[in-house]
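Obj: model holo form, ligand = S-adenosylmethionine.
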Amino acid sequence: MSHFKAPPKKNLGQHFLADRSYIDRIVMAVNLKPGDRLVEIGPGQGAITFPLLRKHGELTVIEFDRDLITPLMEASEGVGRLTIIHKDVLQVDFSKLAGDEGPLRLVGNLPYNISSPILFHALEHAGAVQDMHFMLQKEVVDRMAADPGSKVYGRLSVMLQAYCSVTSLFDVPPGAFRPPPKVDSAVVRLVPKPAADIGIADPALFERVVRDAFGQRRKTLRNALSQVCTGADIEAAGLRPDARAEQLAVADFVRLAQFLGALPPADRPA
Ligand code: SAM
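Output (holo structure tokens):
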């Protein structure tokens, strides 16, 4: 008999994974190793939770819906050691959760309405995260993993790829969920880069450069970045002022932000 009685809640993005073959593919993609500190975001009715728990023996989950907490706890009896954090994931301090016992492996079929805030929240704690395997809207995964020159290469691609390696793993059709979402989904792997490889001294300045550059996609860098720097700055950083943001590699944005951050205080962007 199922422990889960409450109907799915739309406002919490509840589309439960029901196709066993995709559940197996996610578990395989995570490729668990003994001792891994696994944390699932949004376990729902446990579609991914219980296969992971059976395999690994222990698992921490973060679930916001109070109606799911007792059923999850009851369903875990005899399966493994399930720790449930009943909280909004955006309020969970991953660095504190990791403590000094090693970085976390995050997994989740994310609520699509807050998937980008969850990604950026996890990035803020990148030092405490070993890797992430997330199911998201396919359209978002395509943007996350896009290369320069692609139509969907933009702010999300650059912001994520500057801090992580991003790999789109496989697509999942609406029919794999109950109820089915309106859009296709995809599973993505993100692996935070070691701090020394990122090379961004001033994250706020980097974010501003990327935001302004893509804010006016059709404009040249010189025009799009007019509030941040001059054409001469762009050239001095080794880039063409008449290029467009979508033509720049992630490393180019890093180089430009580093160049601007190293200018004498009077010449730096306000
Ligand atoms: N993992 C389950 C599955 O694959 O069937 C459920 C996935 S469902 C797309 C998203 C889950 O995230 C739901 O269980 C929902 O209640 C939960 N959720 C929504 N907003 C949340 C938040 N802010 N913090 C934590 N969990 C949240």
